[in-house]
TrEMBL record:
The lineage of its organism: Bacteria, Pseudomonadati, Pseudomonadota, Gammaproteobacteria, Chromatiales. It comes from Inmirania thermothiophila. InterPro entries: Methyltransf_11 (IPR013216), SAM-dependent_MTases_sf (IPR029063). GO terms for biological process: methylation. Pfam families: Methyltransf_11. The chain crosses the membrane at residues 28-47. Residues 2-71 form the Methyltransferase type domain. This is Methyltransferase family protein. GO terms for molecular function: S-adenosylmethionine-dependent methyltransferase activity. Keywords: Membrane, Methyltransferase, Transferase, Transmembrane, Transmembrane helix.
């Protein structure tokens, strides 16, 4: 299932998805405790701290107890992001800030990895992968 508030992005992704939902990630039209796993891939960087925490609270709400959240976020210093995106001042945050947002939303960080890659245009990319768990059995 894919969720996005942009109709164009959903239309492009729809052929690869079992279901597509147009919604704001801060207020998902999904049942609570319905998913064993959820992923937020390069989404939080578009929001300020309050928006990040609201999205993470929604992720916790839709996860089953013991469910996992996979999070990918850009790292400060990513040259491609600096050149191509206008993000909130607190959009791209260091991993310690992301862990704090996860904890504030009631999610328990379990694993973290710093990733360095090269984009198709040759630009060096830096991002963090985090896995967090909703407490419970």
């Amino acid at each position: 299932m894919g969720v996005d508030r942009a109709a164009g992005l959903l239309a492009a992704a729809r052929p690869r998805l079992a279901a597509a939902v147009r919604a704001d990630l801060r207020a998902l039209p999904l049942a609570g405790a319905a998913f064993a796993c959820a992923a937020l891939l390069f989404v939080l960087d578009d929001y300020d701290a309050a928006g990040k925490r609201a999205i993470l609270r929604e992720a916790r709400r839709i996860l089953r107890p013991g469910g996992r959240l996979v999070l990918a976020a850009y790292r400060p210093g990513d040259a491609w992001i600096a050149a191509h995106w206008r993000l909130p001042a607190d959009g791209v945050e260091p991993p310690r800030a992301l862990r704090a947002h996860l904890a504030a939303a009631g999610l328990v960080p379990e694993a973290e990895e710093a990733v360095a890659a090269t984009a198709e245009d040759g630009t060096a990319r830096r991002f963090t992968l985090l896995v967090a768990r909703r407490p419970g059995p």
